[in-house]
Write a structure and sequence with these properties.
GO terms for molecular function: kinase activity. Keywords: ATP-binding, Kinase, Membrane, Nucleotide-binding, Phosphoprotein, Transferase, Transmembrane, Transmembrane helix. The chain is an alpha+beta fold. It has 15 helices and 19 strands. The C terminus is likely disordered.
């Protein structure tokens, strides 16, 4: 079943089709199509340039992020290397089955070899109490005994612990010892060093040997979100708490352990480091990067300005060199269509193709004008000849009518005389018709209203004084133009019907009225000839010759393709209906 939603869909499709058709008409003009071609040719280059410029912009805007990621990766590598060295040192020391003095000598040697970097280096028992400890120095950041912690388990591990605002890297390794050949892990070696020191002492953080902390700031991020700077002497501003929460949340949601964020003034990189936690690196845009962005923006504006200027120049040139000459040629053709004279204006800027087309069209219009003049002269001669023919036909018909009238006057037999008079009236009708065609100056059409206004009195004149005294003729005809092929049978129908009414409708000196009506409704023309006499059936017994008139009327109606209707009541009424437009189309 058809639903209301289907009707809405069909209406939407029709609206879409109408919009597409209207949009297609936008490109009907040459200027619009040339503009579309120019823009279409420039668009791929513009898109490619835009993509390249956008890539450069993204590359420059993310330069600080890349520096932050480089700092994080380098810190991860350096801290991992440092923890691995410390782990190897503690595991090697713990592998020896030595007493406490010898263990301390090994630890002291390791402290000296490391450049006194450990702030806490000691042997602990299983309860976490210090058994032996290497004395720390100011260089090693002494005073970190509180982060020694209580070892758990029997495996070597590394972790980051915080104390106050500082983070420390702590490595714990068990000591192999005991008796009877069965080792028992009851003691541990612990090495603690400041996390910032572990990173910086490992070497410079960039490939050029410089310190990237000059352009970046880094913090160790504790599991609770607390930040510990990786530079004890640097007065870094802590990032907003919302930034830290956003980055940690993003790293947890994406399960990638890394996250980044660009703000108006800074860039932040968050990620794991050495498998012992995560760090947050903050970088700011360097002056050279800002300068590069400004130069890129200036370059974009310059390219855009040059592109727009070039497009405007191309459009103006195309308008002056192509569109304007074409419009001028179109205007010249319109002037030729209105005035019949083609006088092209070919400027020097007009393309040679347009000039060639203009010259060819000028020669063609010249030949056409000459041919039209010849045709007009030929038509004028033809019209003159046709008028002359109609004039001569009219004169000949009048002569024939006069001859019939003279001959009929010499006949004594009433029947023969009546036949001559009928023939005379028909010839006079044709003569009147030709005279009207000649007088009107139109050989292919006739104003039937004016013709009937003259034909009616002529028929009354032919009926005699007695008929004119008793019978009144009324003509109500509109000014309807008939083609000549329809005017002739219509005129003969009027002549026959009026003649029948005059001769047979009013016997025994009866008085009455005959009406001739011609009206038009649309393409339909209606002719009515009516009288208030004795009627067609009553008159048939008076004279059988009326049958010939009816045959002629029906024959002329068939010739016109009309419908004939004869009604009897208070007299006789002839109605003829024909379609004027259809007949014109057939004759044309």
């Amino acid at each position: 079943m058809f639903r209301a939603s289907d009707g809405k869909i069909l209406q939407m499709l029709r609206d879409l089709g109408a919009r597409l058709f209207q949009s297609r008409r936008v490109f009907d003009s040459v200027g619009a199509r040339m503009g579309g071609v120019i823009l279409g040719s420039v668009a791929p280059v513009s898109v490619l340039g835009g993509v390249l410029v956008w890539q450069d912009y993204v590359h420059l805007s993310e330069a600080s992020l890349r520096r932050g990621e480089a700092v994080r990766l380098t810190a991860d590598r350096r801290l991992r290397h440092d923890i691995d060295r410390t782990t190897a040192m503690l595991e090697t020391t713990g592998e020896f089955d030595a007493d406490g003095d010898r263990t301390m000598r090994f630890l002291s040697l390791a402290q000296s070899a490391s450049g006194m970097k450990y702030c806490f280096l000691a042997e602990l028992d299983q309860a976490g109490s210090v058994v032996n400890q290497v004395t720390s120095t100011a260089a090693s950041g002494g005073g970190c005994e509180g982060v020694g912690g209580r070892p758990t388990g029997d495996k070597t591990f590394a972790e980051v612990v915080t104390s106050g605002k500082r983070a420390y890297a702590r490595v714990v390794a068990p000591i192999a010892g005991g008796g009877g050949g069965f080792p028992t892990r009851v003691r541990f070696l612990v090495a603690v060093e400041p996390l910032d020191q572990a990173v910086s002492l490992a070497g410079p953080l960039d490939s050029t040997g410089g310190d990237v902390f000059a352009d970046a700031a880094a913090w160790y991020v504790a599991p609770g979100g607390e930040l510990s700077p990786l530079c004890a002497q640097c007065a870094w501003s802590r990032p907003p708490a919302g930034v830290v929460a956003s980055l940690t949340s993003e790293a947890q949601e994406t399960k990638s352990e890394t996250a980044s964020l660009i703000t108006t003034y800074s860039s932040y990189t968050y990620g794991p480091v050495a498998g012992v936690g995560a760090i947050l690196v903050a970088t700011t845009r360097l002056p050279r990067e800002t300068h590069s962005l400004w130069m890129l923006g200036l370059w974009i504006l310059t390219i855009f300005g040059l592109l727009v200027t070039g497009l405007i120049g191309v459009m103006v040139a195309a308008h002056r060199l192509v569109v304007s000459p074409l419009r001028q040629l179109t205007q010249d053709v319109k002037m030729w269509d209105q005035s019949g004279r083609f006088e092209p204006v070919n400027a020097r800027s007009t393309p040679v193709e347009f000039r060639t087309l203009s010259n060819v069209f000028r020669r063609a219009t010249g030949r056409l004008a000459r041919r039209e003049a010849e045709l007009e002269r030929s038509i004028a001669r033809q019209n003159l000849l046709i008028r002359e023919i109609h004039h001569r036909v009219k004169n000949n018909l009048q002569i024939v009518a006069s001859l019939l009238n003279l001959q009929g006057a010499r006949i004594r037999a009433a029947d023969m005389k009546e036949e001559f008079m009928l023939a005379r009236d028909r010839v006079r009708t044709l003569a009147t018709l030709h005279r009207h065609l000649y007088v009107e100056g139109e050989v292919e059409s006739l104003n039937m209203g004016r013709f009937l206004a003259e034909l009616g009195p002529q028929l009354m004149e032919a009926a005699g004084e007695e008929a004119r005294a008793l019978i009144t003729l009324q003509v109500e005809a509109s000014d309807i133009v008939f083609p000549s092929n329809l005017a002739t049978p219509m005129a003969l129908i009027v002549s026959e019907t009026v003649s029948n009414s005059l001769k047979y409708a009013f016997p025994d000196l009866r008085s009455g009225t005959i009406l001739i009506s011609l009206t038009q409704t649309g393409d339909e023309v209606i002719l009515v000839v009516a009288d208030d006499g004795i009627g067609l059936s009553a008159s048939q017994g008076i004279n059988d010759r009326e049958g010939i008139g009816l045959q002629l009327i029906r024959g002329f109606a068939r010739q016109m393709g009309a419908v004939l209707q004869i009604d009897e009541g208070a007299g006789t009424r002839y109605t003829v209906r024909t379609t004027l437009g259809a007949r014109r189309a057939e004759t044309g």
